[in-house]
Amino acid sequence: MKKILIVFAVIAISSSSAFAQTSTTTTSTTVTTTSTDDRAVSSSKKLQQELNLTDDQYNKVLVVNTECMKRRDALKASGQTDHQGFKDIMEYRKQQFATILTADQLAKLDDIEAKEREERKAAHSQSNGGGE
């Protein structure tokens, strides 16, 4: 019962600020940042579509994503320079998803994440002049 109340609270909070964005102006550009809850909802909806999540799975994934994004934001705000804290968050996310998703969904998620890593790696190589 307590978990259900937490899930509904997270959903209520995220839906009330679903379209809220803040803009920060720097000297030469405008940077738009999206709230933690908005990013968690967006990420969870993307997974819902790609993995065909049930409503129950979606709600659980949303709670995990919100927690992980809040932890990441706190690490960034604290000036964290090493990657261990971020790796710990990703490991936590992976462990939680293992209890929520089916084996097929986990395999598909691994494929999606591997593809995204390759795309980021390729984009990084291009922006650095081919990495040579």
Strand content: 5-15%
Strand order of the largest sheet: 1-2
Number of domains: 1
Q: Largest sheet, if any?
A: 2 strands, antiparallel
Task: Provide the low-confidence segments as ranges.
Answer: 12-31
Number of strands: 2
Give the helix level as a range of percent: over 70%
How far do the termini sit from each other?
Answer: 56 Å
- Report the C-alpha radius of gyration, rounded: 17 Å
SS content category: mainly alpha
What is the global morphology?
Answer: globular
How many helical elements?
5
Mean pLDDT: 81
**Element order, helices and strands?**
HEEHHHH
Secondary structure layout:
Layout lengths: L1 H15 L4 E5 L4 E5 L1 H16 L3 H23 L6 H17 L2 H25 L5
Antiparallel strand pairs: 1-2
Helix pairs in contact: 1-2, 1-3, 2-3, 3-4
Q: What tags apply to this protein structure?
A:
globular, 2 strands, 5 helices, 73% helix, 8% strand, two-stranded antiparallel sheet, mainly alpha, 132 residues
Characterize the structure shown.
The protein is mainly α. It has one domain (2-122). 73% of the residues lie in helices and 8% in strands. It is built from five helices and two strands, in the order H-E-E-H-H-H-H. A two-stranded antiparallel ribbon has the order 1-2. A hairpin with a 4-residue loop joins strand 1 (21-25) and strand 2 (30-34). Helix 2 packs antiparallel against helix 3. The N and C termini lie far apart (56 Å).
